[in-house]
Amino acid sequence: MLGRTKKRRTDQTIVLTFRGPESNRQAAVESLSSLGFVDTTDSIPWRQAFPEFEGNESGTVLRGARLKEEMTQKELAEKTGIPQRHISEMENGKRAIGKSRAEKLATALNVPDYRVFL
């Protein structure tokens, strides 16, 4: 049996919920902010904020990673060996990315974890 080869992440986040007097809210937020906590009471889920991306999350991530690296689809195609039309179809949600392509794309786009494309 193979042992663990990767260290566990130590920067995992947690969610805290408090009850107390409203008059002390700002003091509590300021105290927790100094420890690295963030007040998320005004936030909403990203799927609710951007419903136009629902159903094509992996294509949106692919396009975003490509644009972040300032690459055209043609340049990415040359770097990965994946035809440019396939990249276009993946970005538009018309073609599944798949594990082997996700690994190639992650390497070419300097993305540390290929699973973001799946």
From TrEMBL:
Which intervals hold domain HTH cro/C1-type? 62-115
Under the heading SUPFAM superfamilies, the entry gives: lambda repressor-like DNA-binding domains
Return the SMART domains for the record.
HTH_XRE
Signal sequence interval, chain numbering: none
What Pfam families does the record point to? Answer: HTH_3
Superkingdom, natural source = Bacteria
Q: Membrane-crossing residues? A: none
Q: Which GO terms describe its molecular function?
A: DNA binding
Full protein name: HTH cro/C1-type domain-containing protein
Q: Which organism is it from?
A: Desulfosarcina ovata subsp. ovata
